[in-house]
Write a structure and sequence with these properties.
Blueprint (H helix, E strand, L loop, with lengths): L2 H17 L4 H13 L4 H18 L2 H21 L21 H12 L1 E4 L11 E4 L3 H11 L9
Length: 157
Amino acid sequence: MKKSWKIILFTVIVIAPITNKLPAIAQQQNLQKIVDSIQSVEQVKRDIARLITTVDNCRVGSCFNFSSTAICELVAALDVQVNGQIVGEMISVGSEGKIPISQNDLALMRDIFSQCKPTNYQYWNFESMLHVYYVPKPAIDQKVRQALGLPPSKRRK
């Protein structure tokens, strides 16, 4: 993925949903709340594991859309808290970037973010025209699940 595409994807995931309705100062404050909600890499990993389990159980519709999008949003918010080490070239919106991340977790988060795909499917349900969700390839899915302590996917390969 080219760096410019990563920046666009990050903007769509974290910033675009906020920008449609709020003035600039309020936008930054709401974005800051999302970023500040990230307290640790372990928290993000637990939340992602829960969301992957939710995706497994619902597989379609708004449940899938919300949960798979939330996976990408969590990684993007964590990226700000680790000073752009996951996606790269990200700037903080006031965060001190104080959360440490191990090399293994960094690799895991990069794998997860690499599977965040933009789509216009059901764009009318979202505030931005471009909707992004997590749809991993089988090899990445297996790797992520193993790292998070989740059982293998029951989806057909």
